[in-house]
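note to self — DONT lose this again. spent like an hour looking for the file last time. sequence + predicted structure for the chain T wanted, 538 res
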Amino acid sequence: MTKSIMIQGTMSNAGKSFLAAGLCRIFRQDGYRVAPFKSQNMALNSFITEDGLEMGRAQVVQAEAAGIRPEACMNPVLLKPTSQMGSQVIVNGRVLGTYSAADYYRMKKGLIPKVMEAYHSLEERFDVIVIEGAGSPAEINLREHDFVNMGLAELTDSPVLLAGDIDRGGVFAQLYGTAALLEEQERKRIRAFLINKFRGDPEILTPGLSMLYKRIPIPVAGVIPYLDVDLEDEDSLSERLSGSHRETGLDVYGRRAFGRVAVIRLPRISNFTDFHALERLPGIALFYASRPEEVANADFIVIPGTKNTMGDLKWMRESGMEAAVLRKAGSVPIMGICGGFQILGEELSDPFGVEEGGSMRGMGLLPVKTYFSKEKTTSQVMGQTAFLRTATAPGQSMSSQDGYGFGGSGCGASGYEMSGYEIHMGETTRSGGAPFSYIRECSGNGKSESCHEDGCVQGQVFGTYVHGCFDSEAMQTALWQYLAEQKGISETMEFYTAGKKPSFSLKEYKEEQYEKLARCLREHLDMDLIYRILDKKA
């Protein structure tokens, strides 16, 4: 019989996703077939599965930790905010539509059968399901038709571990107050508290733990320190986007960087996981820029994906960021990914009101026009690109006429290997320049035999629809070598002789982090208690 355990939090960003990922790895290490599940996720970082379905990346991380391939049934409802009041609603990997918060709340009850169908499909194949809640179970105004926190715990008959974030302060109030606001039958489902993100000597907490237990007899299953584990984060709450990750002039190893990569921090930035691999490259300092002056010294500028291309282009225009990027054009490479690619074009047209409606002038750095359609493109892809292959000097052009292009259809031509996924509502047509890449779809039952153009290149400006393109070591090396050559740095520099190659295996790195996370949790959690809770003996 399948067992389940649920991680809930006293608030958003209490560490539920990390804790769930860690338990997935621990149960896998202990010989169980384990799967993650989160009934509803609100996130702009999403992923496309092998069968072309969309899901939140938090459950992708947890699936990787469990050693299994991600499936959309692990996250049956995904909400992708498009504005302050509305979100695109994705159910079991497919777009249902865009709804206001009020409209979505009214339709929630009708989604419960879909959620449970997804859950039961996992029950049939796995020994343990690690369930992640969302937000806080104490949001009593949202209790009706809840299928995310205690409502889901009841539907799946799952014991609950409630995590509080001590780093924000008031953790005892968080835990006690959350439990106090629950109904009695809900409170009984909490089998243990977890105190997360602790800095210092845990002995200091001992008196408080005793007093908490006297007030509410729920044991504390562990005090988890602030972990130095590098997993993917969720959206705007990520510290990667905060001041702690601003340009320092140093790479991740603490050495002076020769290449400063500025990623524009758009208000509705999506899939910033595209740049995690670049953060680890020796000699590269990647930072997120939210003010125009922050791009002044950049050696490479990236405009990332966004859930609202037209809205974020307006922000770039009004904030002065567009003018700052245009001033750098011709002197440094500029790249757009997905929505960023659309922004770099000449025109955006939205006749169906998918985003803002009407039409809008783009930045004009690429000879492309984008037409927003009602249908969403979602597929995994693989192919080849000649990204930065000619490594021209600043101010020189790069085109198919001077050696950039693949030649012919490009399907059999040589180039840097690239893979990733497409996820966009727009269709973009190119009237000049050259393709960024040639790609094949590899979602569904197998790799497509047909090959098609992706993106556009003109001069030192690049655009692509492929998320995750920098996960390829070949693409990382291309960027590293280009920036090194522009600074007159040879491969014999200290970054190379110190044993740091200019590329990085993201897959191997993730595995190291999952193992590290599991070790840390085993050290600080009472796993005997957690196994008794899992077996419903505690």
